[in-house]
Amino acid sequence: MIRILLTLSFFMPSLAIAQLFNVKITKIDTDTTVMAVADFGQHFFCLQEDRTLLKVDTATMKVLRQPLTIQTLTDLYSESDTLFGVTHQDSLYYFDGHDFRFAGRKAEANLLYKDAEYKVIGSCSGEWGGTVYFVNRQTGKTFVCNATCPIMVNKLNTGYIVTASLAHLTGSTEILEISSPDQMKVHNFKPPKRKVINVGDNESRSKQGVKVLVDSVGIFTIGSFLIEGEMLHIVTNQNQTFICRIVNRSFEIIQQISDKSLWSYRPACWYGKDGTGFSFFQNHESNGLMRIAGRDVLIYLFRNKSVSE
Predict the structure, then answer these.
(1) Phi, psi of 232 (to 5 degrees)
(2) What residues contact residue 225 under an 8 Å CB cut-off, 6+ apart?
(3) Distance from C-alpha of 61 to C-alpha of 31, rounded to nearest angstrom
């Protein structure tokens, strides 16, 4: 796999590119580090490390705190007008307005995307590789390709754009275009004959049916979003964060949106019901949520009071 090492000169924006996005930063006090966020209605909900739920009104920025009975939740997401919580064992809970109740089933683990044709699942073995699985919902067949490590899938025209990024050492990014998932390699994994399976042995090595748009080290991508019909990417180096487009297999800066590196070891990015893009970040310096609504970029920085006091 050929990778392009980015240099600092890459991050010099063209003077011909106008500042197209309105950036607003809001600080929100939290009791501990926020480990997961989900948008729900006119609010977003934050799961803190102390397993307290914060309900933030996006209009007034008023914050309500809700203690939880379930102390094993590790993630949040919203779907079909319901807020869900997930445990490390993928047990699924729904929020009834006061607390989380067991939904009686498991969550769909590592689900990245689904539509009428495909369900897309991702796996990651860190520096040893990762895989995107396209499950055809009509035939039941699964098609795979290598991607280290998939964090988001977008439908663009009749194909799919896979964003893969790994927060290891200086970071790495792959952006893949898949016109027809059924042209990828059919998944037919057979366990190795040896008893010891090394990390990454289960991951695909195939790029069959895949066009590589970007393959780089030295940069981390925290989300890719369709904005006015164009696929744009939120990328960060060690110091700053930018909105970029892809030109000739490289990222071209449109605008710097933060003087901080807004990356995460557990990246989470998604679309809201109204098409708003969200990206959650958590690292040793920054913890927060980015909300992209048209040309408005709203960055909510969570300020851990137990650390700042």
Answers:
(1) -120, 160
(2) 154, 231, 232, 233, 234, 269, 271, 277, 292
(3) 16
Which regions in the chain score pLDDT beneath 70?
A: 1-19, 189-199, 308-309
Please give the Cα distance from 253 to 255 (Å, whole number): 6
Per the DSSP assignment, residues forming a β-bridge with 84 are: 77, 94
pLDDT at 4: 41
Residue-wise pLDDT for 106-158, tens only, equals 999 899 999 999 999 999 998 889 999 999 999 999 999 999 999 999 999 88
The predicted pLDDT at position 305 comes to 82
Among candidate residues 139, 173, 176, the one with its CA nearest the CA of residue 161: 176
What's the token pair of residue 60?
A: 């007034």
Q: How far apart are CA 228 and CA 48, in angstroms?
A: 34
How far is residue 113 from each of residues 101, 132, 162, measured CA to CA in Å?
A: 25, 11, 10
**pTM, two decimal places:** 0.89
Containing H/E element for 227?
Answer: strand 220-227
Q: What is the pLDDT of residue 6?
A: 44
Q: Which of 57, 25, 51 is nearest to 36 (CA)?
A: 51
Amino acid 118: pLDDT:
97
Closest CA to 141 of 92, 183, 199, 89: 183
Q: Residue 171 in contact with residue 218, Cβ under 8 Å?
A: yes
Beta-carbon contacts of 168 under 8 Å, excluding residues fewer than 6 positions away, are: 126, 127
- Which residues does residue 152 pair with via DSSP β-bridges, in sequence order? 163
Nearest residue to 290 (alpha-carbon basis) of 246, 224, 237, 228: 224
- Token pair, residue 199, equals 């990390």
**Cα separation, 32 vs 307, whole angstroms:** 8
Give the span between the Cα atoms of 93 and 33, in whole angstroms: 22
What integer pLDDT is reported at residue 189 of this predicted model? 61
Q: How many helices (H) and strands (E) does the chain have?
A: 1, 27
